[in-house]
Design goal:
By secondary structure, the protein is mainly α. It is built from 21 helices and seven strands. The chain has helices spanning about 5-20, 30-40, 50-60, 65-90, 100-115, 125-145, 150-165, 170-180, 185-190, 190-210, 215-230, 245-265, 270-290, 295-325, 335-350, 360-365, 365-375, 380-405, 430-445, 465-470, 485-495; strands at about 415-420, 425-430, 455, 470-475, 505-510, 530-540, 555-560. A five-stranded mixed β-sheet has the order 4-3-5-7-6. The protein has a two-stranded antiparallel ribbon with strand order 1-2. The protein is globular, with a radius of gyration of 25 Å. The N and C termini lie far apart (about 65 Å). The model has no long low-confidence stretch (mean pLDDT about 85).
Length: about 575
């Protein structure tokens, strides 16, 4: 009974997310994802190989962005539901939950798994692939450690390892160490391990076979990508711990209401249900208060941190209950406790090497902590009900934020149909953004841009233009400025393709804060903009609104055509 209210809230959040999938498109980060996915072999320097995984899906769907989002969201939902079912089979409980209760718990977990969508684009990327790898590794460990499907579990862990390497190598490193540390080797035996190694090697060998230049070419591209990344990222970024009373009060109300419903659920189920529903309703009402005071833009930065804190507290309570044997729960078992440790480590693995706030990035994967709590205390009792209320409320808030404050866009509540690529891909965009994309596509059509056209984007903010035009990036999919080593990184990416500078268009917007400095081409004997002429201009991607600048200036991007470009040392590597 205590899970009905959270399940309703979770279902509402999933409906909102489904409604949002055809809406909005960011030509900066999301444009980079699509550039890498559409043609993963174009990049000259990258350590992120996620495009090779998502490209077959993109190709089968005919380049549909909405279809790609649906497939990736479906994979997240499927893996989350599968992992939740596997966890519930191991979790202690006074009585085994019925099918309806299990369905409610799965709905809450699936909704919570989409928390990253409140701050990240919906199109799959290396972050999505990394999340899927972690969930697959956890599921594979459950199957292998429990002996239910040992060979299949080992194979899934191997596939997860390969996906993590192609998604984000830093996370792959921590994920591998976490699995090695928590595996009960005596219980598991050699067969799942051999299956994992076989699948891992097979997947990586397949990657080598499909990449240009095979092993030598792949190593060269990754080496340049690592060199170009130096100065762009810190492995662990410890920012101040963000907090807000308004956020904590809403989350706390949902958790306390869930706990009350759990305490009263056995003896007074109706009272418990009403109390839990009222607490969630009061918490949800705070959403409108946040909107009225203009806090929606910052809630998506505060919510994961607050959820991480409260789930951490619930986890501590769950550990105490297990140690005391409270509520008649059985003592800890080897597989269960080792899996709890693995689930606790996964959000930290996700945050390792992100160059983003450690607490915020870890909090985006708080679904693993939610499952860890259920693994300790089961689905009944106050602690479990509190976890359910907190998870459902977190999921609902993040789902509401997604259309109200989407990533690098205005509200998606009012949109129009718009063509967003040369191939005719259609999306629904806010009217102003639809107009900007139309102008950008008109420029590409007028210049006769085709797949054979190479484009060097030096704006630091327009990688999606190359994808929308159907062109090819001269260097990596995204050459970004604004970091201490950005100039060196850009030159590292451009160097292998420098001999194509004399026939490549250049996107130039020196006023952009992330633009590459004009002297970037000097080592190749090219002067910017002196050796070029402006052949077109168009409004660049709209900068993200902030509290200090709710209507930021839209920069103008100039398209430069080479006039007297003669790159030097073209015979070199």
């Amino acid at each position: 009974m205590p899970w009905i209210g959270p399940a309703v809230a979770a279902t509402a959040s999933l409906a909102i997310l489904l409604w949002s999938l055809p809406r909005g498109l960011d030509l900066t980060d999301e444009g980079y994802y699509l550039t890498e996915i559409a043609h993963p072999g174009d990049s000259t320097a990258t350590a992120l190989l996620f495009g090779w995984v998502w490209h077959p899906v993109y190709a089968v769907l005919g380049g549909s962005v909405v279809g790609l989002r649906l497939v990736s969201s479906g994979l997240v939902a499927l893996l989350t539901a599968s992992l939740t079912l596997a966890v519930l089979r191991l979790a202690p409980s006074r009585t085994r939950p019925g099918r309806f209760a299990v369905a409610c718990v799965c709905a809450v977990a699936v909704a919570l798994a989409f928390l990253p969508m409140s701050t990240l684009p919906a199109t799959p990327s290396y972050n999505t692939l990394t999340w899927l790898a972690m969930a697959a590794a956890a599921l594979g460990c459950v199957w292998a450690w429990s002996g239910r499907r040992p060979m299949l579990g080992g194979a899934l862990v191997g596939a997860a390892g390969a996906a993590a390497v192609m998604g984000k190598p830093t996370t792959a490193l921590v994920l591998g160490a976490a699995v090695l540390f928590t595996t009960p080797w005596r219980r598991t035996g050699p067969r799942p391990v051999l299956a994992a190694l076989a699948v891992l090697v097979t997947c990586l060998a397949a990657l080598v076979m499909v990449t240009p230049g095979h092993l030598a070419g792949l190593v060269e591209v990754v080496q340049r990508g690592v060199e170009a990344t130096v100065g762009h990222a810190r492995l662990v970024r410890r920012d101040p711990f963000l907090r807000s009373a308004q956020v904590f009060l809403g989350l706390g109300a949902a958790a306390l209401g869930g706990a009350a419903a759990g305490l009263l659920g056995r003896h007074r189920p109706v009272v418990g249900l009403v109390l839990g529903s009222v607490s969630v309703a009061v918490a949800v009402a705070s959403l409108w208060r946040w909107r009225d005071v203009g806090m929606i833009a910052s809630i998506d930065l505060l919510l994961p941190t607050a959820a991480l804190t409260l789930f951490g507290l619930l986890g501590a309570v769950a550990v105490v209950l297990v140690m005391r044997g409270g509520d008649g729960m059985p003592g800890p078992e080897t597989v269960r406790i080792r899996l709890v440790v693995l689930l606790v480590l996964l959000p930290l693995a996700y945050a390792f090497g992100t160059n983003n706030n450690l607490w915020h990035w870890s909090g985006q994967c708080v679904v693993f902590w939610f499952l860890a709590v259920l693994l300790l205390v089961g689905t009944t009792g106050a602690a479990a009900a509190a976890a359910g209320g907190l998870a459902a409320y977190t999921a609902l808030v993040s789902a509401v934020i997604t259309p109200l404050d989407p990533y690098r866009s205005t509200s998606l509540t009012k949109t129009v149909d718009a063509r967003v690529s040369h191939d005719g891909t259609m999306m629904r965009l806010p009217p102003q953004e639809a107009g900007l994309v139309t102008q950008m596509l008109d420029v590409g059509d007028r210049l006769g841009v085709t797949r054979s056209t190479k484009v060097l984007d030096l704006t630091g903010a327009s990688p999606g233009v190359v994808w929308a035009w159907g062109a090819r990036p001269l260097a990596s999919g995204w050459v970004i400025g604004g970091y201490p080593e950005s100039l060196h990184a850009a030159r590292t990416s451009i160097a292998p393709a420098r001999c194509d500078l004399d026939r490549a268009l250049v996107l130039w917007a020196p006023e952009q804060p992330r633009a590459i400095p004009d002297e970037v081409l000097e080592p190749f004997g090219v002067e910017l903009p002196g050796d070029y002429r402006v052949v077109a201009t168009f409004p660049g991607p709209r900068p993200a609104p902030t509290a200090g600048d709710p209507a930021p200036h839209v920069p103008v991007v100039s398209v430069l055509e080479p006039v007297s470009v003669s790159p030097t040392a073209c015979a070199g590597p």
